[in-house]
Amino acid sequence: MDLGDFAYVVETDKGFDEAAVSVLKSAEQKGWSVFQIYDLKERLAAKGFKQEPLKIIEICSAKHANNFLNKNKLISLCIPCKINVIQENGKVRIIGMKPSLLARFFPEVSEEETMEAERDIKDIVDNAR
Q1: Under CATH, which architecture does the 3-128 domain have?
Q2: pTM over 0.70
């Protein structure tokens, strides 16, 4: 499996913090809720580890979540959706996990349903770029 099979990745010219804020704004503009933001660099530094900037932003679409959960409650293991902002070697990338993976693990969810959610994720990432 290649990275492109499960993640949508774009590089941005924005700084790390600006890119993270752009993801929040883009998600809200698309009508998705922001649930939580994890600053991995900060959390690991508190334990004595050094990492480059990395934020995990959890977002959710009530419409998609409700639809998927009505098909199988175990899909809750895969939600909320995550968009990561990563800085490595001076480059900032915005990465969203592709919801189309759900159809591979949960046959009761159609690929068409997951692709609708995936289009939203790609739009959020692209608009944050």
Answers
A1: 2-Layer Sandwich (3.30)
A2: yes
